[in-house]
Amino acid sequence: MPFMPRFTHPRLEDVPLDLALHALADPNRLGMVARLAATERLSCTDAAPCDSIPKSTLSNHLKLLRSAGLIETTQSGREMINTLRRDDFDRRFPGLLDAVLANAAT
Amino acid sequence: MPFMPRFTHPRLEDVPLDLALHALADPNRLGMVARLAATERLSCTDAAPCDSIPKSTLSNHLKLLRSAGLIETTQSGREMINTLRRDDFDRRFPGLLDAVLANAAT
Q: Can you list the positions of beta strands (E) in A1-106?
């Protein structure tokens, strides 16, 4: 059987601006992106905005962040590891993530 | 009877970042903001993204843009005139609208 990636990730050129903004327009998702920007890589559990978030909600947030080209999820042993697609995203939407993160931090 | 404004506009400090991003995360609304950024003032009809948009949809878009502190709507004779609250918005979210508009234009 050929290798099948568990998650799919879009080419950034296929991500429309409104999807990128929609992915960032949620305090939980934005918090996850800000944490990944500061931490480089996080398991799905560690990426969660709080311990009490339902697994399906967390999974949906991660899925939307992936579909917007913001994060990459890869398997590492038994863990799923998330990283920010910072370079890809910055190349597609210059200055956008910087502006959003700067305003999120205030 | 005291003067009652027909529309209310939030103080920008009361607008959360996620609401601002949500308001911009729609191609029709973003197009209206981009047009206002280029045109200074537009009637509601002229601000519409297309002629076929239902009046209630247009009204909801304008209402959301107002609630996010992006536009001001004032009465001028029989017309409602929309302007971008550019300075207010830029002071609250430095660099954000510039980054979004630059990416919308490409």
A: 41-43, 71-76, 79-84
